[in-house]
Amino acid sequence: MCEVAISIPNEVLYDTKMSKNDALLFAKRAVALCYYTQNKVSLGYCAQIAGMTKEAFIRYLGENGVSVFQYDDKKEFVEEMNNA
User: Fold this and answer.
1) 14 vs 74, residue with greater confidence
2) CA atoms of 45 and 53, how far apart (whole Å)
3) Mean pLDDT for the stretch of residues 34-49
4) C-beta neighbour count of 47 within 10 angstroms
5) Where is 63: in which H helix or E strand?
6) Is 7 left (phi over 0), alpha (psi -120 to 50) or beta?
7) How far apart are CA 8 and CA 60, in angstroms?
8) Are 49 and 42 in contact (CB under 8 A)?
9) Angle at 48 between CA 20 and CA 84, to 5 degrees
């Protein structure tokens, strides 16, 4: 597994009232969210990056306005709904 380090000014942690651990968790979740929405990385890998279960990551996506249902067009969505 790859590790990445970022520097966050102490003032940012102070202003946001975050501990180093809070900032680490926030960064992991932000990276996972971006990977999921922009790079089409799988739900499982993104949950792992975020340090969450798949179910918890799905809830996190919903809280951030991201659907786990991704369809290229309306026709594909309607077909899927008809098959459900």
Assistant:
1) 14
2) 10
3) 93
4) 20
5) helix 54-63
6) beta
7) 23
8) no
9) 135
Per the listing, tokens 């926030």 go with 26
C-alpha 33/C-alpha 47 separation (Å) is 9
The DSSP code for 74 is H
**C-alpha–C-alpha distance, residues 24 and 7, integer Å:** 11
pTM value > 0.90: no
Q: What is the C-alpha to C-alpha distance for residues 57 and 67, in angstroms, rounded to an integer?
A: 11
pLDDT, one tens digit per residue, over 56-80 is: 999 999 999 998 877 666 776 677 6
Distance CA 26, CA 81 (A): 35
Are 43 and 70 in contact by the 8 Å Cβ rule? The answer is no
Token duo for residue 56: 């918890």
The separation between the first and the last C-alpha atoms of the chain, rounded to the nearest angstrom, is 37
Q: What type of residue sits at position 42?
A: S
